[in-house]
Amino acid sequence: MKTKLATLMLSLAFFGSAHADVKTLEQNLKTNYPDLPIKGVYQSPVQGIYEVYTSGRIVYTNQDAKYFFVGNLVDIKQQKNMTEERIAELGKIDVKSLPLNQAIKYVKGTGERTLYVFSDPDCPYCQRLEQNMVGVDNVTVYVFLYPLTSLHPNAEKVSNQIWCAKNPAEAWTNYMLNRKLPTNSKSCSSPIQKNIALGQKLNIDGTPTLFLQDGQRISGVPSDAKQIEDRINFGDALEHLLRDFHRRDIARAVQLQQACCRQGEQIMGHHMFSSVG
C-alpha cells in the first residue's frame, strides 16, 4: 500500500512539474517572441524538449526558449516520424463546425464520401487538383473560395464572379478546367471575406488545403486521382473504425483496422517514393 501511494505521489509530482514547465515556457515565448502566433505548447517525447505548434508547423525548444530546433523528430526503433504524426493530429478540425453555406457544393456519382477544399481560383495547384478530381467519383465536394490576394491580386474578384454566377458549381468547374469566367454574373453578397477569416482561424496558409471526413488535413495537391481516392478511402475507413469501436463491435473494428493499416502502408510507400529526388 505504501509503495502504491509513493508511486502515485511521484506521478502527481512529475505531472505538476511538467505542467509548470510548460507554463514557464509559454511565458518565455510570449516575452521573447510576442509576434509569434503560438497555437499550443506540449511536452515532446524527449525529456526537457517541448513542441511549439505555430502556423501549422512544429518547432522544438527547451524551457528557456532561446533556441529553436527545426526539423523532424524520428523514432528510429518504431520507424515513425513523430513530427509528421503530431502535425497531422494537431491539424485536424471538426468538419461538422464548417459553415457549409459559405461553400460551393458539387456532387459526383452517389456523393457518399465527403471532401472539404479551401481553394484559390488562380492558384495553379488548385487548378491541377480540379483536373485530378475529374477521375474521382462518388464524392460530395465543398469548395470554400479562399483567394490568396498577396499571390494572386485578381483572385478575389474572380471568386466573387464565380460565387455570384447563376450556377456557382458549374462556373467553378468551367473556370478551373477551361479558364472561362461566367458571363451571367451579377453583383451579390458573397462569403469570400468570411472564408478568408475562417481560413486564417484554421491556420490555412496555402492552397489547396483539403479536409477529409474525419477532419484530417491534407496540404497541397495529391499527385493524381488515385492518390485522392486513396486518401479519401483511408480517412473514411478510419471514421468507420472509430464508430465501430464506439459501438464495441470489436470484430468489425479489427477488420477495418487491418484495412486501414494496409491502406496507410500503400499511401506512405507512395509518399516516400514521390518525395525522393
Walk me through the structure.
The protein is of the alpha+beta class and 277 residues long. The termini are far apart. Mean pLDDT is 82; it is low at 4-17, 238-251 and 263-277. It has eight helices and ten strands.
What's the quick description here?
The chain has 277 residues and is of the alpha+beta class. It has eight helices and ten strands.
Can you count the helices? Answer: 8
* Total tally of structural domains: 2
Strand order of the largest sheet: 6-8-7-9-10
Superfamily (CATH H level) name of the largest domain: Glutaredoxin
Task: Please report the total strand number as a whole number.
Answer: 10
How are helices and strands ordered from N to C? HEEEEEHEEHEHHHEEHH
CATH topology of the largest domain: Glutaredoxin
Tell me, rounded to a whole number, the average pLDDT.
82
Helix amount, in percent?
40-55%
Spans of at least 5 consecutive residues whose pLDDT stays below 50 are 4-17, 238-251, 263-277
The radius of gyration is 22 Å
Distance between the termini: 59 Å
Basic shape:
globular
Beta-strand portion reads 15-25%
Structural class: alpha+beta
Q: What is the CATH domain class of the largest domain?
A: Alpha Beta
Biggest sheet record: 5 strands, mixed
Q: Which CATH-level-2 architecture of the largest domain?
A: 3-Layer(aba) Sandwich
